[in-house]
UniProtKB/TrEMBL annotation:
Domain N-acetyltransferase: 1-164
Full protein name: GNAT superfamily N-acetyltransferase
Key words of the record: Acyltransferase, Transferase
Species per Swiss-Prot/TrEMBL record: Paenibacillus lactis
Amino acid sequence: MYIRTAVEADAEGIASVHVNSWKTTYRGIVEDAYLNSLSVSEREERWRWKIGNLRDDEELLVVADDQGTIYGFLTYGREREDKLPHEGEVYAVYLLKEIQGQGWGRRLFARMKEFLRSKGFTSLMVWVLEGNSALAFYQRMGGREIKRKEIEIGGKTYTEFALKWDSIEQLP
């Protein structure tokens, strides 16, 4: 397996990872009815659009095998609230359970760091849903909580944590 930039043909694989990761990561956190309603085909269209409309300061990476099967992805770019001009944001990162704990997250972050540095970003942040086991990963990687907010998913309210790296140089 290896990491590469996503192409339009990856949309279905990314959508599949996205939906399956939500169903395993958020089971017991987010309502089952919502998780059961997630659709790969619906997500595929969103990802196809995203791949075709990435801004110059955004990137979408995939972890894939030689046959093109997608096992994970990471998308990031300029902080979406545009409050901090030199801050990057992780938009989404998901790995299928079968490759978690094998260093792919760290490798994806290393690639992201190179890209962010090349675009002039100096810091990074990510929003993490309360209860998501990735919170511990981000903390081990040096992210520190800076704020919380309430969000709605499927008609229910949940808490998200914002974690920040003051310098992207803190990343592996």
